[in-house]
Amino acid sequence: MISFLRGKLVYKAPPFLVLEVQGVGYEVEAPMTTFYDLPAVNEDIRLHTHLVVREDAHILFGFSTEADRSLFRTLIKVNGVGPKLALTILSGQSAEEFHRCIHDSDTQALVRLPGVGKKTAERLVIEMRDRLPDLVGSNDTDAINIGVASRELANPKQEAVNALCSLGYKPLDASKMVQNISADGKSCEDIIRLALQGALR
Asked: Would you identify the CATH topology of the domain 4-63?
């Protein structure tokens, strides 16, 4: 099992990023909560990782905090929740917000996430309630070495639409989510964050 990777960020386009570690490029899928913390390309980062082995692929998932990785690992143990849906849940809510939803049995907030229906939301509340205490307090802030720098994209709104589609939103819905958000001075990650905040209200 690969526990973490430390190296240079060479590419990022949600939900994928590429991390170069001693001359080897690792393709990693990550939730938006991790992308919000990423520095500019060519800067060094450290990610907690989880490897999913399938018959047709080995998929590496990366997380900025141990809390997010722990939550991901707990989510994929829930019946009907695979890695892609777990990534979508982590992209739409922070670990703290998800904990609140489970604690308060707030299935309405959960079904606003793409791919989460009423039955899945109810199953999450039932199965996750006893498992969540172990996740609280495990949020380490030094997981990513953040070099905050300006991030410039050719078309951040279109990049945001593409990323939202990758997270499970329909193209038309994704376009509507970002159409009223001003792109002035905003990165793709900033636009996605605002779009998700608006969609989950």
From this structure: OB fold (Dihydrolipoamide Acetyltransferase, E2P) (2.40.50)
CATH number of 66-135: 1.10.150.20
For residue 5, give the nearest of 37, 50, 47, 43 by alpha carbon. 47
Q: Please report, for the chain, the start and end positions of each structural domain, with discontinuous segments joined by +.
A: 4-63, 66-135, 156-199
Q: Any idea what DSSP says for residue 31?
A: -
Say if residue 79's pLDDT is above 80: yes
Question: Which string of DSSP letters, residue by residue, matches 136-161?
Answer: TT---TTSS---------S-HHHHHH
Task: Please state the pTM of the whole predicted model.
Answer: 0.69
Would strands 4-13 and 24-29 be described as parallel, antiparallel, or unpaired? unpaired
| Average pLDDT for the chain | 83
Give the ranges where 49-201 is alpha helix by DSSP (H).
66-75, 83-92, 95-103, 107-111, 118-128, 156-166, 171-179, 188-199
Torsion, Cα 60 94 101 117, to 10 degrees, reads -50
What fold characterizes domain 156-199? Helicase, Ruva Protein; domain 3 (1.10.8)
96-143: pLDDT as tens digits: 888 888 988 999 999 988 889 999 999 999 888 877 655 544 444 444
Instruction: Please state which of the ranges 6-15, 53-62, 72-81, 127-136 shows the lowest mean pLDDT.
Output: 127-136
